[in-house]
Amino acid sequence: MAKELMLKYGCNPNQKPARIFMKDGSNLPVEVLNGRPGYINFLDALNSWQLVRELKAACGLPAAASFKHVSPAGAALGVDLPETIRKICFVDDLELSPLAAAYATARGADRMSSYGDFAALSDICDEQTARVLKREVSDGVIAPGYTEKALEILKSKRKGTYNIIRIDPDYRPNPVEHKDVFGVTFEQGRNESAIGPELLQNIVTKTHVLPDSAKRDLLLSLIALKYTQSNSVCYAQGGRTIGVGAGQQSRIHCTRLAGDKADKWLLRQHPKVLELPFHEGIRRPDRDNTIDVYLSDDAKGVLADGAWQNLFTVRPNPLTREEKREWLNRQAGVSLGSDAFFPFGDNIERAHQSGVSYIAQPGGSIRDDNVIETCDKYGMVMAFTGLRLFHH
Prior knowledge:
Elements: E1 4-7, E2 18-21, E3 30-34, H1 39-59, E4 63-68, E5 71-77, H2 83-88, H3 98-108, H4 111-114, E6 117-121, H5 127-134, E7 138-143, H6 148-155, E8 163-167, E9 176-181, E10 184-189, H7 212-226, E11 232-237, E12 240-246, H8 251-267, H9 271-274, H10 284-294, H11 299-304, H12 321-329, E13 334-338, H13 346-352, E14 356-361, H14 368-377, E15 381-384
Parallel strand pairs: 6-7, 7-8, 13-14, 14-15
Antiparallel strand pairs: 1-2, 3-8, 4-5, 4-6, 9-10, 11-12, 11-13
């Protein structure tokens, strides 16, 4: 592995020179096997690798993440996928290894945001995972290794320019980290706080029953938040994130943004969406954009003009607001993590609209009593972790 890598430019083309290197002069823990990753690619790669490494350590399953602009669009564990989930992630025609299933659902959690992502894999990339990556619009991937066949498949992507990074899985950074802003160097201890089941023991609501599946999803949401630009909130279900609200100044805006994404994930499982009569051969991004519009309040207007003829064999009926609400009201068992305390019960009210049953947050607001009372109104289980997870 090299001691430094020169980059084309920094965050923007005018920011030159650009490189990555180790301040102590040692070799980098990463090796570029194909392509020419850029500055933002490496930021995504190194943040996403930390997430999947920690997620696998906490849950004991292969993990994958789909990153965009230094936050996860999605993260998931390698669990068995029901047929409906395989279908809405568009992998029902593929044989999936646990790692491939993890990436398929990390990518599928928010397909609009995942477009052009940087992928991270906790385990050696196998052929099945490479085939899922091959069919998606993606900038690159980081993993501790690649099988010979997986590397062959990935090297053929993007006319041979796909970015493939191998990271040393045994690399551990210095416990003190530095960052320069406006010529001023900041120093802090790395956030090495372990996220495990012990964080979920302080249940403050009247309802105390926390199933193992919910514990897993809450740990997933908290680990995802540890590597998400703050303020942030994460909804999770079935071993995958289903809505991440990142980088908002207001906690309620985080909850709404992530909740709107979670709603779309849940609504994509509605029979009307599963049965949309797409033309054969429609491009994947066009299909994803169409589903997004179909689930929006503008669907009726879009379907009323002639544009639908380029997308569907017959014009589908839109989902009415009443149908959407009825479907969402049937949902339950969603887990929600927050990187800092909820200041008001309005966050819980919004979470309830998306089927949230389980919550993990640090606690410590002067209005904790209002937040707990709102959870009790809906029979939710909430744990105070006592751990803030800001990330900047």
